[in-house]
Amino acid sequence: MMHGTVTFRGGRLFDGARLIDGYAISFKDWQRVAYGPDADVPNLGEVIDLGGDILGPGYVDLQVNGGDGIMLGDDPSVETLTRIARAHRALGVTHLLPTLITDTPEITRATIAATIDAIGQGVPGIAGLHLEGPHLSVARKGAHDAELIRPMQGGDLAELLAAAAALPCLKVTIAPENVTEAQVAAMAQAGILVSLGHTDADYDTCRSYMAAGARCVTHLFNAMSQLGNREPGLVGAALACGEVSTGLIADAVHVHPQSIRTAWAAKSEPGRVFLVSDAMAVAGSNKTQFTLKDRTIHRQNGQLTLADGTLAGADLELTTAIRVMVEQVGLPLEAVLGAATTAPAQLINLPLPTPTAATCRLSNLVRISRDLRAVSGLG
User: Could you tell me the Gene Ontology terms of the biological process aspect for this record (predicted)?
Assistant: First the structure.
């Protein structure tokens, strides 16, 4: 924790779109008080030489299933949300959507209530809630419990609409197999970020659901109908529809770097590809395994898998994802930083605090090492 006045020099500032060289920035009592070309900013208070590191807005992660050794569904409470948010703050995430994987109606209700309470109590970092299921496709369930997957009923929809009215952001991942276009339209009209995922639906069906109001796709390529020569699937629909943005797990395990490169080049705008961690309980901990609904998930060689080898979330934090995107995919650092900050923030209408903003607070920034191997919070 830094107190009093501090000045940062000798690094690069990321403003949400560009990397800026030769600038300095000062803070007093956490609030920005000076910013500009290096020669124009005096040394105020403690002077920190960034040594070429990057100072920029904290990451925005829209898919965080757990952290600090626990899953959100294990004990949906303000304490659990606080622990998860704290664990990811240490990994550079200043805003996140805690994510509930397919669960019972009781756990879903408890999670919604806990998230509303956490936001009301001002728990740092909680930007809303992501419900990934239970209205998915069994054929593309991945690590989700097939016995809990079910169609969306009128009562389910009513509860989601009520939750949307009480939360700053509610993201819901659904599959056309278990949700109607009318239900999607109702959710979208209520401000819910409807995301297509865990589905085997064909291209035309996915485009129809996008026209009905779905504006997002959950972890592109994974647990969905693929891009084929005669049937483009959800992958093709996500890339073709400019009104839709899509999350991506960039660990070079869930998706091959060449597939990422192709998708990045093919994505129709203004929708964008953004990075997600799909982090599980092991995030921010040294745990080598955990349980997901009585099933053991093993952590080994940068992967999380069930006993049969099925991927179960990701052993990933966003600094590593950024490094994969730059070093293995070959994309510009500025664009990739935007995929971890600006793109997801804009999707959920979250004002992104950047060093260039007059209202910027030090606690909303992170320091990323120049070799993209470490990140540290500044508040």
Answer: N-acetylglucosamine catabolic process
pLDDT of residue 379: 66
Token digits for 29?
Answer: 């009592």
135 is in an annotated binding site: no
CATH number of 59-347: 3.20.20.140
In tens, the pLDDT along 89-148 reads 999 999 999 999 999 999 999 999 999 999 999 999 999 999 999 999 999 999 899 999
Q: For residue 359, how many other CB atoms are within 10 A of its CB?
A: 10
The burial class, CB within 10 Å (0-12 / 13-18 / 19+), for 168 is: middle
Structure tokens at 168: 């700053």
pLDDT band at 305 (very low <50, low <70, confident <90, very high): confident
Length in residues, the chain? 379
Global pTM reads: 0.96
Torsion angle, alpha carbons of 217, 147, 250, 367, to 10: 90
How far does CA 377 lie from the centroid of its chain? 18
Domain 5-56+354-377 is classified in which CATH homologous superfamily? Answer: Urease, subunit C, domain 1 (2.30.40.10)
What residues act catalytically? Answer: 278
The answer to the question of whether 311 is labelled as a binding residue is: yes
State yes or no: 39 annotated in a binding site. no
The domain segmentation of the chain, as residue ranges, is 5-56+354-377, 59-347
Q: Is 254 known to sit in a ligand binding site?
A: yes
